[in-house]
Design goal:
Blueprint: H1 4-9, H2 17-34, H3 38-44, H4 50-58, H5 63-70, H6 73-86, H7 88-108, H8 111-122, E1 128-131, E2 147-151, E3 154-165, E4 172-179, E5 182-189, E6 195-199, E7 211-222, E8 226-231, H9 233-268, E9 270-271, E10 274-275, H10 280-308, H11 314-339, H12 350-362, H13 367-379
Helix pairs in contact: 2-4, 2-6, 5-6, 6-7, 6-9, 7-8, 7-9, 9-10, 9-11, 9-12, 10-11, 11-12, 11-13
Pathway: Amino-acid metabolism; tryptophan metabolism; Amino-acid metabolism; lysine degradation
Domain Acyl-CoA oxidase/dehydrogenase middle: 129-219
GO biological process, one term: fatty-acyl-CoA biosynthetic process
Length: 385
């Protein structure tokens, strides 16, 4: 099932049958479970936990882990694009569950921890969250103040995190805290005494998702809760690289959805006695949107091939995340213009995508952080600190 713009791009000629299959699996899920309800859910700020179980039934939740072995890296990226074409909130769900929480456990956890959590999370029967960002050190995770202190055979966690996706729905939290010997990762049962997750109100973006303020009031966890391989801040940042890769793909879904809305209306709507699509300025805008979309998708595909070959660097991911978010925002703004006044209404998904992209631009590294990561690679000079 291809779209007009995908036909012009001829993306399928560069994809394997398995990759196309994963794209269609995700596209079908969006058509059946997300697109029919997303406008109402955005208005009502409603998150649907049942979509996690639908993702689990498709096998999509396992792709970030499986892709390290069977080459499904691009399939995961395509799934991210399809989910974000529905709404960024549900690509965020896939990213938090798979790229962040499950990848943390798979990469750094003990066999017991993997057996305890990964099968249930892959099936969508358990939800994880990733607690790294803090209220006063969003772009400076090295400045975290959440502490992990030894008490006999246990650890005691104290502190606060902010903007933690789906923490109030999660069964387990991957928590990063500063111990005496450096940053460590822990698996915290969200039913633990002293754990609190409160949704952040007043959001005008990602309204079909939930982000929380999380507090740890002397939360006691056993030694077995520590992720044995998660020592040092670099282990947490490595998980962010996986999430940023999914974003580079995902935002092109929001862009495509907006572009297709503008293209469809330009064919149907008449002005000055002829279809909008026959006007030169409208065709110029459509052509500009397509070339931006093509650029973003091909960059994401290149990153996917590098990742499958285990040659993808953090700076390359930053290039994809920074550049593709900017391209998506430009496409969405242009699409809104083609739609005219109706483009600001919920009759079209464009303003919803536009609002969501503002959050996507900020999380998993702001524009400025990605600029400095790229700049550090280009100049061999570190300007971040």
């Amino acid at each position: 099932m291809t779209t007009t713009i995908d036909t012009l791009l001829d993306l399928e000629s560069r994809l394997t049958p398995a990759e196309i299959m994963w794209r269609e699996v995700a596209r079908t899920l969006v058509d059946e479970h997300i697109r029919p309800v997303i406008d109402d859910d955005f208005e009502a700020q409603r998150f649907r936990p049942e979509i996690l179980r639908a993702l689990g039934r498709t096998g999509l939740l396992s792709l970030p882990i499986a892709s390290r072995d069977d080459g499904e890296t691009v399939g995961y990226g395509l799934a991210c694009m399809e989910l974000e074409a529905g709404d960024s909130s549900y690509r965020t769900l896939l990213s938090v569950q798979s790229s962040l929480a499950m990848t943390s456990i798979d990469s750094y956890g003990s066999e017991e921890q993997k057996d305890r959590w990964l099968p249930a999370m892959a099936a969508g029967e358990a939800l994880g969250c990733f607690a790294l960002t803090e209220p006063h050190s969003g772009s400076d995770p090295g400045g975290m103040t959440t502490s992990a202190t030894r008490r006999g055979d246990d650890w005691v966690l104290s502190g606060a995190k902010r903007w933690i996706g789906l923490a109030n729905h999660a069964d387990v939290a991957v928590v990063w805290a500063r111990a005496e010997d450096g940053v460590r990762g822990f698996l915290v049962d969200t039913a633990s005494r002293g754990f609190s997750a409160v949704p952040i109100g007043g959001k005008l973006s990602l309204r079909a998702s939930v982000q929380c303020d999380v507090t740890f009031d002397d939360v006691v966890v056993p030694s077995s809760a520590a992720l044995p391989g998660a020592e040092g801040l670099g282990t947490a940042l490595a998980c962010l690289v996986n999430a940023r890769y999914g974003i580079a793909w995902g935002v092109m879904g929001a862009a495509r959805s907006s572009f297709e809305s503008a293209l469809d209306l330009s064919r149907r709507r008449r002005a000055f006695g002829e279809p909008l699509a026959r006007r030169q300025l409208v065709q110029a805008k459509l052509a500009d949107m397509f070339t931006d979309y093509q650029r973003g998708v091909l960059v994401a595909l290149h990153l996917g091939r590098l990742k499958a070959e285990k040659r993808l660097s953090a700076a390359q991911v930053s290039t994809g995340k920074l550049g593709n978010v900017r391209l998506a925002q430009r496409i969405v703004r242009t699409a809104r213009g083609v739609l005219g006044g109706d483009g600001v209404t919920s009759a079209f998904p464009v303003m919803r995508h536009m609002a969501n992209l503002e959050a996507v631009s900020t999380y998993e590294g702001t524009e400025e952080i990605h600029q400095l990561i790229i700049g550090r690679t280009l100049t061999a000079e570190n300007a971040i600190r």
